[in-house]
Design brief:
Layout: H1 4-19, H2 24-33, E1 91-100, E2 109-119, E3 124-130, E4 135-136, E5 144-145, H3 148-166, E6 172-177, H4 178-188, E7 191-195, H5 197-205, E8 222-226, H6 228-236, H7 243-262, H8 267-277, E9 282-283, H9 287-299, E10 304-310, E11 316-321, E12 325-330, H10 332-344, H11 358-361
Parallel strand pairs: 1-6, 3-10
Antiparallel strand pairs: 1-2, 2-3, 4-5, 6-9, 7-8, 11-12
């Protein structure tokens, strides 16, 4: 049997220490996600896949199917992608998975995919968002959006897809679904988020979709104190602005705001927060592995935070597949090379790489 008391002590101590360390990346990526209560990864062999659910706050129709039925398999040329998997004992890659599942549903799509890489040698943490519409080969299935891999085969298959298509080995997975997201934010409380006029107006117009807020929303342009329901809608919507490009940026803003609030708490409140939040997360990491990541962050000189996304500008094409599925078809070799540069600081040939600054990497294009 698992020692729950030990888990709680480890998680609480790490959360408190990380928050006092003074970096966003340590405080959030190294604590809230890593110190999750250990549970078994889902391993159902047979699952009946329903049609794609309507996206929250998005006015889209369900597709007849979500694979590539009716599309000639030879229509997409992957260009004989030469993907070399890179590993480094000084780098740990943790996959943060936002689960597209509501109450009563089985495993669904991964609504958000973020690689959190802790680089001990370079003293930095790298957050890389993978666009969920990235179209990739999925072992054992037809080519599909990368976020379908989690629904088909859970953490294990998603890890395999990332390794085979992007050349990054995943060391551990941490997953949260909508209910867990709401529970965690309910414990933490409202967060201050700055909205532009378009975001505020759109959320106000769709406040009737909230199941928890009993009154309409009156959000405004500028800084807002947002409820958990508003934060969930804000971080998920891609029907305004530049679609999923801006959505991933909103998710990072919510994570940063959560950390900014948590680091202002005293140690006793942080411990209480840890006790309540961590059961909402699922991970395939063992207690020993978690202890190792704790040691890495607490004893290393982790000071930098870099943020990127895949696919990189100029390395993909926007394509509409039957039946009306819009996807991003990437140059896998190029994106693998860029991702390895972001995380390891070297290209596939072993040369030191010139990486973008955080501001440059966050530039989103139409």
């Amino acid at each position: 049997m698992r020692n729950n008391r030990r888990w709680k002590k480890v998680c609480a101590a790490f959360l408190a220490a990380a928050c006092f360390s003074g970096t966003v990346s340590q405080g959030f990526c190294g604590s809230s996600f890593v110190c999750a209560e250990e549970t078994e990864t889902e391993t159902e062999a047979e699952t009946v896949y329903s049609q794609k659910d309507l996206e929250l706050l998005e006015n889209v129709e369900k597709a007849e199917a979500d694979g590539v039925d009716g599309l000639d398999a030879d229509s997409i040329d992957w260009g004989n992608a030469d993907i070399q998997v890179m590993e480094d004992e000084d780098v740990s890659n943790l996959l943060l998975i936002g689960q597209d599942r509501r109450e009563g549903q089985d495993r669904q799509r991964s609504d958000s995919i973020i690689i959190c890489s802790v680089n001990k040698e370079k003293g930095k943490i790298v957050l890389t968002s993978i666009m969920r519409d990235l179209y990739v080969p999925i072992p054992g299935y037809k080519d599909n959006r990368i976020n379908a891999a989690y629904q088909f085969g859970g953490m294990e298959l998603l890890d395999e897809v990332i390794e085979e298509n992007l050349g990054i080995h995943i060391d551990g997975n941490i997953e949260v679904d909508f209910d867990g997201f709401m529970e965690a934010l309910s414990v933490l409380g409202d967060l201050d988020i700055e909205l532009n006029a378009t975001e505020a107006n759109y959320l106000n117009e769709h406040s009737d979709l909230s199941e928890t807020d009993e009154i309409g929303w009156e959000l405004k342009e500028g800084m807002n104190s947002m409820t958990p329901a508003q934060l969930l809608a804000y971080s998920r919507t891609r029907f305004i602005g530049n679609s999923d490009w801006e959505r991933t940026e909103r998710q990072r803003k919510v994570l940063t705001a959560a950390y900014e609030k948590a680091k202002k708490m005293n140690v006793f409140n942080l411990v209480r927060l840890a006790y309540k939040i961590f059961p909402n997360f699922t991970t395939d990491l063992s207690i020993g592995q978690v202890a190792g990541y704790i040691y890495t962050v607490l004893t290393g000189s982790i000071e930098g935070l870099e943020s990127y996304r895949i696919p990189v500008d100029g390395t993909y094409n926007c394509v509409t597949l039957a039946p009306g599925m819009e996807v991003l078809i990437p140059d896998l070799t190029a994106n693998s090379s860029y991702l390895q540069q972001f995380i390891y600081g070297v290209d596939v040939s072993g040369n030191v790489a010139e990486t973008e600054t955080e501001s440059e990497s966050e530039t989103e294009t139409e």
